Amino acid sequence: MNSDIKKLLQDVKSGNITIEEAELKLKMKPYEDMDYAKLDLHRGIRQGVAEVIYGAGKTSEQITGIINAMLKNNQEVILVTRMSEDKALEVGKSVDLKYFKDARIGLVGDFPKPTGIGKIVIATGGTSDIPVAEEAALTAQALGNDVVRLYDVGVAGLHRLLDHMEDIMSASVIVAIAGMEGALASVIGGLADCPVIAVPTSVGYGAAFEGLSALLSMLNSCASGVSVVNIDNGFGAGYLASMINHMEAK
Amino acid sequence: MNSDIKKLLQDVKSGNITIEEAELKLKMKPYEDMDYAKLDLHRGIRQGVAEVIYGAGKTSEQITGIINAMLKNNQEVILVTRMSEDKALEVGKSVDLKYFKDARIGLVGDFPKPTGIGKIVIATGGTSDIPVAEEAALTAQALGNDVVRLYDVGVAGLHRLLDHMEDIMSASVIVAIAGMEGALASVIGGLADCPVIAVPTSVGYGAAFEGLSALLSMLNSCASGVSVVNIDNGFGAGYLASMINHMEAK
Amino acid sequence: MNSDIKKLLQDVKSGNITIEEAELKLKMKPYEDMDYAKLDLHRGIRQGVAEVIYGAGKTSEQITGIINAMLKNNQEVILVTRMSEDKALEVGKSVDLKYFKDARIGLVGDFPKPTGIGKIVIATGGTSDIPVAEEAALTAQALGNDVVRLYDVGVAGLHRLLDHMEDIMSASVIVAIAGMEGALASVIGGLADCPVIAVPTSVGYGAAFEGLSALLSMLNSCASGVSVVNIDNGFGAGYLASMINHMEAK
Amino acid sequence: MNSDIKKLLQDVKSGNITIEEAELKLKMKPYEDMDYAKLDLHRGIRQGVAEVIYGAGKTSEQITGIINAMLKNNQEVILVTRMSEDKALEVGKSVDLKYFKDARIGLVGDFPKPTGIGKIVIATGGTSDIPVAEEAALTAQALGNDVVRLYDVGVAGLHRLLDHMEDIMSASVIVAIAGMEGALASVIGGLADCPVIAVPTSVGYGAAFEGLSALLSMLNSCASGVSVVNIDNGFGAGYLASMINHMEAK
Amino acid sequence: MNSDIKKLLQDVKSGNITIEEAELKLKMKPYEDMDYAKLDLHRGIRQGVAEVIYGAGKTSEQITGIINAMLKNNQEVILVTRMSEDKALEVGKSVDLKYFKDARIGLVGDFPKPTGIGKIVIATGGTSDIPVAEEAALTAQALGNDVVRLYDVGVAGLHRLLDHMEDIMSASVIVAIAGMEGALASVIGGLADCPVIAVPTSVGYGAAFEGLSALLSMLNSCASGVSVVNIDNGFGAGYLASMINHMEAK
Amino acid sequence: MNSDIKKLLQDVKSGNITIEEAELKLKMKPYEDMDYAKLDLHRGIRQGVAEVIYGAGKTSEQITGIINAMLKNNQEVILVTRMSEDKALEVGKSVDLKYFKDARIGLVGDFPKPTGIGKIVIATGGTSDIPVAEEAALTAQALGNDVVRLYDVGVAGLHRLLDHMEDIMSASVIVAIAGMEGALASVIGGLADCPVIAVPTSVGYGAAFEGLSALLSMLNSCASGVSVVNIDNGFGAGYLASMINHMEAK
Amino acid sequence: MNSDIKKLLQDVKSGNITIEEAELKLKMKPYEDMDYAKLDLHRGIRQGVAEVIYGAGKTSEQITGIINAMLKNNQEVILVTRMSEDKALEVGKSVDLKYFKDARIGLVGDFPKPTGIGKIVIATGGTSDIPVAEEAALTAQALGNDVVRLYDVGVAGLHRLLDHMEDIMSASVIVAIAGMEGALASVIGGLADCPVIAVPTSVGYGAAFEGLSALLSMLNSCASGVSVVNIDNGFGAGYLASMINHMEAK
Amino acid sequence: MNSDIKKLLQDVKSGNITIEEAELKLKMKPYEDMDYAKLDLHRGIRQGVAEVIYGAGKTSEQITGIINAMLKNNQEVILVTRMSEDKALEVGKSVDLKYFKDARIGLVGDFPKPTGIGKIVIATGGTSDIPVAEEAALTAQALGNDVVRLYDVGVAGLHRLLDHMEDIMSASVIVAIAGMEGALASVIGGLADCPVIAVPTSVGYGAAFEGLSALLSMLNSCASGVSVVNIDNGFGAGYLASMINHMEAK
C-alpha cells in the first residue's frame, strides 16, 4: 500500500527508525506499494470502465466471491471470461448475471456507453470463428467501445467482405479473426488504414494444425499495420483494440 | 521394346520356346516393352509439342548431347529447366538456344502455337515470385498454351488484383504463385470458377520458414478448386496447367 | 443485386442523383451486385448440376431449412457433406434423404447423368482411406461425373494397382487417396497421363503424424501432373476433379 | 483513376453509352479508380509525412528513379528500408541521402517534427537486437514520432529495465524487441499500460531456432495489450506504432 | 492366376488368338498372375510357417471368416495383430483362439518350432514398452523363432542391461524397444555385433512428443548395425527380425 | 550380489576354478554385483531419507506390495508419485498413507527434518502450474529439504515476484515452474545468484503447443545458472534441487 | 587388456593381493580388458575383411598415420569414408590409395572376394542419390559383398524398376535410397521378400525439408521387412546390409 | 548507487524534500541502487574469482577496453568467451592474453586454485563435441574448479565410459556433452549420484537436426538428477557446474 512507504518516510523523519533500516526495507520490497494490479483479476488488468475476471480454473464459489467483493467496491461492470455454462448457472443463482453462451462470457451490470475514439470492427472468416469473435466483441464492449460485427466475410467469397467496405474504411481498429483463412488479416490490412489485430483460430482440420497455419499466415502478412495475438485469444484482441481505441496524450 | 513381346509370342507360336519358358520370361519382365517414358527426359514426361529436359545436375555436355539426339529425332521444341546461366552459355556454343535468365530456362526452337482449351493465367503475389512464375509460364508456353501474366497482384493491395477481374474470369486454369502471401490462392480461388494451381514460394523471411507458411496457408484454402504443388515448383504447375488446358475425351 | 446498379445508373441518367454521389456509392459497394455466391452453401460454390451444403457445424434444423429453400428454388440434386448419422436421421424425418454412412454424406434427389469429358478414377492406398474416398466419389457423382473406384491398391502390393492399368490409362482425372502410403500419388502419377489430385489422409500411427507424412510425400512427388489438397479433404478433391472433367472453352 | 468513373457516369448521363454497358464495365473493374495505394511504394502505404520505399530487391537505379519521381511530386521525406550499404553509396551519388548503416535505412530530407499523441519507446533485450530496433525507430521517426530508445534492457538484468520505469510508464506505444529473451515483451507488457508491439529477432543460437523460440514466447505472453509481428520485422513494428500513436476520430 | 498366362500362351500356340491380341493383353495385365500376395492378409505377407491377419479395422465376423478360410486351406498357425479384447472374445466363440492381452494378439494353432539361425532378443527400456515388445515377440515366435525377452533394461540403470551381456552377445538379431530412453538402441548397438532393429514407442510425456524424441534419437545412433521402424511398430520389427534370422542363399 | 564376486575370487584362490574360467565369468557378468539400484523403485533412485515409488502404470496392489516390502526393510519415509486418487484410496485401506491430491502424491511416514544446505524456493508463473509445483515441493520435502512456495508470481505482474526478493536472494536452489510464461526462469535467473531449475508446464493454449513454447523459452534464457528439465517434470526438478541442496565433499 | 585380469587373478591366487582388493578393482574397471573396439576406427567397428576409418574431422596426417598402423598390423583392406578429395590427394602421396570421388571414399588394398549369403542390391530413386548409394555400395564391397547397382529407378517411372524384377527377386538384402521419392522403399518392400534398408537422402527442394519428407515416408512404409537409417547415411546402410548378408549361427 | 537512497533518506530527515516527493522518487526508480550486475560483463555475472566477458559481437577494441578497466580494478582473472582467433591476436597485442583455440576462449591472468566442493567431470560423446566441452571446462577452471576431462566416451562404445567409472563416481558435478548421442546424459545420469548438466551439441547430420535430436533425447532422460542447457552452451554448463560445486549455506 502507498501508506506503507509514507509511513516509512514519516518514521524516518520522526527518527523512529534509522536511515539505514529504512534503506534496507526499501531495497527489499521495492514494489510492495505500487498497487496497479490486482491478484484475482484477469491477468492483473484494470481499465476504468470494467473489471474482468478470468473464469477458467476458478470455481463458481470463487467467481461469486470476487464479483461480490467488486460490487461492494462500487464496480459497476464486471466481465467473466472463459466461464462454462454450468458455472454461469451456479453464479447466476446469487448474482445478477447475463450469460453469453457463444463467447462463454458472463456480464454483471450493463455495457457502458462507448467512450473510444471510433468504432472497433470485429471480422471473421467463417461462422466457426464466431465464439472467439464474440469473446473479443463483448470484451471490447465491456471496456466502453462501439463494436461492429462482420462475421463470415472470408476471402474465398471476397464480395461479402467488399460489401462492407464502408465499415472497414471507417473503423478505428479492426480485429480480424480467422482459422483456415488466415488470409483475412492480409486482405483487410490492405484495404484498411487503421491498426489490424489478427487472431488465428484453431478452427479447421488437416494441415490447419490447430491454428498454426493461420498463425504463420497472419505473421507473414504483407499488409502494414497488422499484428498478431495468440491462437483463439479473443479476449487479448478485444482488450488491445480497446486500448488503442482509447489512446490519448499522457 | 514392343518387338520383344512380339518376338516372344512368335517364338511360342513357332515352338522355339516352350510355354513354360515364355511364362517365366513374361512374369519377370512385364514392363520391358512399354516405352512411354524416356530415361533422360524431365521426370520421364513427353507431351507432343515439346520435350523438357531437367537441367539441374546435368553437365552442359550432357545437355548438349540430349538436345542433339532429340533434334535428330525431329523434335522441334525443347525446353531445358533449372539451367544456370553458365551452362546455357556453354550449350549455346553449339546449339541454337534462347536463354530466359529469370526462369533459368533454355529454349530450342520456337514456342508452338497455342492449342489449349483457353488461356492459362499466371499470377504472383509479389515481384520476388517472378522467377518461379516464369518457370511456370515458359513451361506452359512450350507445351502449347496461351499464357497471361499477372505479376505483383498480392492481396495486401487488392485493387491490383481486382483490376484484372476480366483475365481471371476468362481463364481456363490459373496458377497462383505467392511466398509470404499464401492468401493469393484463396482470394483467386474465390473469384475464379476454374481450377487454381497454387505454388508456394520460398520468398520471405522470419516466420515464412522457407515457404512453409505459404504452403500451409494454400493447403487450407477455403476456396474450392484449389490444389497445391511443391514449394517453388513452377515447372510442375505449368505442366499440370497445360495438361488441364488440353483435356479431351479419350 | 444487379437491379441496384441499374437503378443507380438510371438515377444518374435521370438526374435524380449527382454524378459525384453515384461515384461515391460505386466505390464503396463495388461487388454488392455480383451474386455469384450464396452465403449458406458449401464455401459458396455452385455448379449447375448440384448444390452442396457443408453440414459440419450446422444443426439439423438449419440443414433442413436450407434444403427446403433449395427445393423450392427447383434445385433437383442437393449434397450435404460432413453430416453425422444423427443429423441425417433428424433431417430425414421431413426430407427425402439418402444417407451414405461411410462418406458422412446425405443426398437429396438422384445422382445426375454423367456429363464430363471422361471418367474420374478414385484410388485409395488402403481400406481405412475409404471414408475420404467416398466423400470424393459421391461429390463427383453429384456434380455429374462417371466415377470408377479402385480401393486398397496401395504400393506395398503393386500388383493390385497394376491389375487396374486399363482404368488408370483411360481416366480423365485420378484422385489418389492415401495415408501412410503417400507413395500412391507418385506411382499413379508416373503411370497415368492425366491430372492426378492427391489427398493425404490422417490414417496411420506413429510417424504418420496425423497425415503430415503423407502430405509431405505427396508434395514431393517426382511425377508430373500431381497436385495436392488438404489432409482428408475428399470433397475438395472430388470438386476439383469434376471441374477438370468439365473443362470447356469459355 | 477517379476520372474514369466520373467519365463513365458522364457518358451515362449524356447517353454516350447505355446503362447496360456501364453496368458491365463497373462490375468488371470495380477498383481501378481507388488509387489509395501506389504500386512502387513500400507495400503500398502512404501516410502524410513520409513515403517509404522497400529497398530489398530493387536496383540502385530503380531506387534513384522512384526517389526522384517522389521529389518532383513534392514529397519532402523519403525512407528507403532494407538497403545495402553498396546501394546507398550508389544512390547517394545523385540524391542527397543520409544512410543509417545499422538499420540499413536511407533517408532523403529531414525527420519531420513529431506529431503523435505521445512518445514511442523502442526497447531491446540485447545489443544484437539493435539493427531491428533501429529499423523500427527510424521508421517511426520518419513518420513523425518522438522516439525513446531503451537498448539492452533484457530481463536477465531486470534492474536495467526498472531503471527506466519512467520512460515505460509515460510511453504511448512500446516496441519490445528481443531474440532469445522473448520474455521482454511479457515483462514490459506487465509494467506498462499502453499497447506493446513485440518483435522477435533471429538473434541467438541453438534452441533459439532462428527466432521461433522468441516468437512463441511472445505470442504466449500473459500480459494484456501485447501483440506480435513477424521475426525481425522492425519496419512493421515502427509503422504500426506510428499508426497507433496517431489515432484520431474519423 | 498362373493358369491365365499359361492359357494365353496355349491360345497363341494353338492360334486361338493372334499374336497382336496376346501382346495387348499381356501389356495391360502384366501382374495379374503373380499371386505372391493375398488381399486379405497383413500387408500382403506370407512366410511359410504362419499367416498374419491385421486385426485393426476388421470386424470380428471378417476376422473369423478369414481364419476359417485359412484353416480350410490347411494353414496351421495364424496370428491376428492389433485385435481388441472384445473382438477376441467374439472370434473365440467359433474359433480356437489364444488371446495375448498385452500384445493385443490372437493366435490360432501353436507356435511352430524355431527354425531360425539363432535367437532373437527383444529388449525394452521400461515396463511401459512391454505391449509393443510383446507384439514383436509373439510375431517372431509365430514365424518360427526362438525369442529371449529382456524387459526393463533401460540405460538409466545400466547394470540391468549389463547383467544380460551373454544374451546380447549370443543374439542373432536384437529388437531394441524404448520410449523416452531412445538411448537403448545406441547402447545395445555398441555392445552387440548383430543387426539391431530399433522401435521407438509413444510412451513418455512432455518433450517425448509421442515418440518423436525416441525416433530421432534412434536414427542418430552412432552404433553401426542399427536401423529403425515406425513408432510402436512391434509387428514390423518382429517380422523383419524373423526375416533376418531366416537368411539363406537363394 | 557382492558375495558372487567374493565367492569367485575365493574359488580362484582355493583353485576350485582355473584363472581362465574366472576371467571368462568376470567378463560376461561385470556388473552383476553392483546393486546400487533397485528394480521397483522410482527410476532406480535412493537417497537416504526417503524412497520414491513411481506410481503411474502400477496397480494399487503392486504399490501396496512395494510399500510393505520397504516398511519391513525399516524404510521410514516413502513417497509415491503420479498416483491417481483412486489408487490412493485403495492403497490407503491397508497402508497408513497421506494423499496430496494436487500433486497426485502419496506419503507414508512423516516428512523428515530438513538436512540441506539452505532453502529450496519453488516458484510458479500462475495458479495452473501448482500441481507440477507441488510434485516438486513434496518430493523435495520428502528428501529432507526446507521448501518455500512462491506461487502465481508470473512476470506479467512483476511486483508480485519482487515482493518476494528476500526469499529469492536467500534461496539455495530455486525451481521456476511456468507454462505460457516461460519468462519466469529468465527473470528469476537474473535476480538470484543460486542454481535455477526451470520446469516448463503444458499449461496454456494455442501457440503454447503443450509446453513447447515455455520449453524453448527456458532453454534460451540469457540468465546464467539456469537449466531445464522435461515438461511437467516436477519430480525431476524436486529431486535435482534436493541433490544440489545436499552437496558435500566426497 | 585381457592380461590385466589374468594378472589380477594370478595375484589373488598367489596371495599378492587380498580378495577384497581384487573385488574392488574388478567392480571399478569391469570392461578395461574387453578390447573389442578400437578408438581410432569408424565408430569402433571391425569385421574381419576390412577396417573402416571415418574420415570426416580427421586431418590427412591422422588418416595416413592410422592407415600405416593398420598396414603394419597386416590389415589388407582399409576403407576411409567421408574423405574430401583434397585429403585423398594428400594421403595418396605416401599411401597407395584408390579414391572414389562420388562416394568420397578412399580404398587401400583391393576389394575382397564376396563371402556373403547372396547379393546386395543398391537402388536409388534418382541420379542425385548416387553419392549416398556409392558410399553404401563401396562399404558393402569392402566388407566382402557382391553388390548390384540399380540407379535412377524411382517410382515415378515404374517400368524402370520393374525392368529389374529379377535383380530384386534374387537379392539377399536391398538398400533403397531416395530423396523426394521416399516411395521407393515401399514399392521395393512390396515387391521383394528380403530385408530392405531404406536410406532417405537430403536431395530435393521445398517441402523435401532436407530429407525429412523422405524419412517420414519411409518410416510409414506399409511394406513389411523395411527399416530405416539416418538421412544420407550410406555407410550405415552398407554396413548393416553386409551384417545381414553374413548371418550365420553363433 | 546505495548512496542515492541514503541521500534521499537524509534529505527527508533534514526536511530538504517532502515525504511525498521522496515517495514518488522511490516508486519510480526502485532498483537504481542495487548494483549487483555490470552492464558490460558476460550476461551480468560476477563470481569472486574471475570476471567473464562475452566476446561475440564485441570489437577487439571494446574487449581490450573492458579488460583494461577490469585490470585497473584489480581483477586478476578474466575470461573472454566466443572470441575469434583474429580478435584474440588483436587483443593480444596490448594485453597479456592466453588464447585457447578449440574453445574460442581468451584468458588474462592464471587459472585460480580450485576452491569447490569436489571435482567437475566434463564428458563428451565424440571428438567433435570437444570445442563445446572446452568452453565448459575452461569456464569452470576460471571460476575456481578442479576439472576432469573425459572426451570421446560415447555410449556406442560403452567400455570407454565404464573405464572411467572411478572419475564418474567421485565427481561433484558432471557435464555431459553430446551431439547425435544424446544418450550419454542418460547413461551417465544412471551411473552417477551427483547432478548431471546435459549439453546437446549441433554436431551430426540428417535427423540430428542441428542438435534438436540430442536436446529432446536429453530432456527425456529417465535418469534422475539430469537437467539440460541450450544447444552448444558450454559456458552456461560450466558456469552452473561451478555454482553447484561452490554451494554453501547462506
Q: What report would you give on this structure?
A:
Eight copies of one chain form a homooctamer. Chain A has about 250 residues and is an alpha/beta fold. Helix content of chain A is about 40%, strand content about 20%. Chain A is built from ten helices and nine strands. Chain A has a five-stranded parallel beta sheet with strand order 6-5-7-8-9, sandwiched between helices. In chain A, strands 1-2-4-3 form a four-stranded mixed beta sheet, with helices on both faces. The longest helix of chain A has 13 residues, at about 1-15. The model of chain A is unreliable at about 25-45 (pLDDT under 50). The interface of C and E includes residues 160 and 208 of C.
What is the topology?
The structure is a homooctamer of 250-residue chains.
Chain A lengths: L1 H13 L4 H10 L21 E5 L5 H13 L4 E5 L3 H8 L4 E4 L4 E4 L10 E6 L5 H13 L3 E5 L7 H5 L2 H5 L1 E8 L4 H9 L4 E5 L11 H8 L6 E3 L5 H12 L5
Parallel strand pairs in A: 1-2, 5-6, 5-7, 7-8, 8-9
Antiparallel strand pairs in A: 2-4, 3-4
- Mean pLDDT of chain A equals 84
The most extensive contact between chains is:
E-G, 43 and 42 residues
Q: How many DSSP helices of chain A?
A: 10
Low-confidence stretches of chain A: 27-47
Radius of gyration of chain A over all CA atoms, rounded: 22 Å
Beta percentage of chain A is 15-25%
Distance linking N and C termini of chain A: 24 Å
What is the string of helix and strand elements of chain A?
A: HHEHEHEEEHEHHEHEHEH
The level of helicity of chain A is 25-40%
What is the general shape of chain A?
Answer: globular
**Assembly status:** homooctamer
**Widest sheet of chain A: strand order?**
6-5-7-8-9
The total of beta strands of chain A comes to 9
Q: What structural class should be given to the helix and strand makeup of chain A? A: alpha/beta
Reported for the largest beta sheet of chain A, the result is: 5 strands, parallel
